[in-house]
Amino acid sequence: MATRVAGLTIGPAGPALAQSVHSPTARVAEVRNLSRSFDGRPVLSSLDLDIAAGEFVALLGRSGEGKSTLLRALAGLDREVTGEVIVNGTVAVAFQDPRLLPWKSVWANIALGLRGGNAAGVALSALEEVGLAERYRAWPLTLSGGEAQRASLARALVRQPDLLLLDEPFCALDALTRMSMHDLVLALWARHQPAVLMVTHDVDEALALAGRVLVLRRGRVAYEATVRPERPRRREDGDLIELRRHLLAELGVNQKGNL
Question: How many domains does the chain have?
């Protein structure tokens, strides 16, 4: 199934997009000439982007450069964009705010929108994957920040997405919790192999997780780099130090790491 946003037409993929998204050469997402303005101010400007099946992409950029707007367009949540967005497969989103419904238990939040008679069992399996099985019947307001983000990931992954969109999901977490979430995300990505596009303001986070890093500036992809070292990565790796320096320069930051 392909979702096409171009003049707001949404429908099935044509023959050219019918290849398996698990093929190494398949594109899960294709963005062409994407533009978006708010109150007359351009945020995205004729942006082009391809995301391959199974790859992990990090998107960096200063506030207001259009990172979250691009994610919303890929998720089909912004119908005011112009240009073309084609997503070949299913999409799930995990936001900075976990957005759990407080009047539903954790498992009911995970199962929300699932069809079939075994929604509870599917939700429990997802919670086991993120280490929250014992919080199955808990209420969202009783969860810690890290637990809430784990539940948010479970809710996204239970839909078996071909494209997982992460919109700064770890920025509100403390350093130790954030590190454990990085390990969890990499383990889940390796197990399920969705393509991932993650928005972050943290250069080190991008270098730890992604295989490709993009810098968004003036509504376009201004810089792109492949992250070579195998995971898990060491911050003292010479290639990472050099790439970090380039990314910070592209972002206009003087070796501080965060924007």
Answer: 1
